Amino acid sequence: MSPLLAARGLDLAYGEAAVCRGLCFEIAEGEIVALLGANGAGKSTTLRAVAGALMPRAGSITFRGQEITRLPSHARNHLGIALVPEGRHVFPYLTVRENLELGGFQHREARELVHEFRQISHCNAILQVRTSTRFGKPVRRLRPCRHRPESPSQPSRPGH
Predict the structure, then answer these.
(1) For residue range 10-53, what is the model confidence (pLDDT) as tens digits?
(2) pLDDT tens per residue across span 44-101
(3) Which CATH architecture best describes the domain 5-79?
(4) Which single residue of 52, 60, 76, 154 could bond 81 by disulfide (Cβ 3.0 to 4.6 Å)?
């Protein structure tokens, strides 16, 4: 059985600065993987390459058996692959609900998520909080909503 995601012989660099050489890994369907390493070890660079934000100098990346090494990031998004930044990249003067709706304007599922949140009283309160507040929880709750696979065959939300 072929792996869900595989990288073979990846050489990753920014300009002349080599970051990773000969990187290989395989991830099976349903497997949970953590990418660990010191600062500057190439963790973010590896994820950028998988998501298509950085083209490798050499090597290959396959997803569900399909070669995606040269596939642009927008095409990988349609496969369910996306890079979700860690920071609080939200519209600070909008509410959590407004951020969800703007972020998911092309995804029916984001609108459904807002509707589901409205049905739960404690979540409804969170939807009204402005993301510019000093409270990090509402902003952190937006993270899973930043990327929604477009294909109905892809998993919908973490934990569901």
Answers:
(1) 999 999 999 999 999 999 999 999 999 999 899 999 999 999 99
(2) 999 999 999 999 999 999 999 999 999 999 899 889 898 876 655 667 777 777 766 6
(3) 3-Layer(aba) Sandwich (3.40)
(4) 76
How far is residue 106's CA from residue 121's CA, in Å, rounded to a whole number?
A: 26
Residues in the chain: 160
For residues 146 and 103, the answer to whether their CB atoms sit within 8 Å is yes
Beta strands across the sheet bearing 66-67:
17-27, 5-14, 58-63, 66-67
Quote the pTM value. 0.62
What span, in angstroms and rounded, lies between the C-alpha atoms of 59 and 45?
A: 14
Q: Report which residue type is found at 43.
A: K
Which pair of tokens denotes residue 38? 């010191």
Q: Any idea which residue has 């070890």 for tokens? A: 41
Report d(CA 10, CA 47) in Å as an integer.
Answer: 12
CATH 3.40.50.300 segments of the chain: 5-79
Given the structure tokens 């919908």, which residue do they identify? Answer: 156
Alpha-helix runs per DSSP H in the chain: 43-51, 73-79, 96-103, 108-119, 121-127, 136-140
Cα separation, 42 vs 82, in Å, equals 18
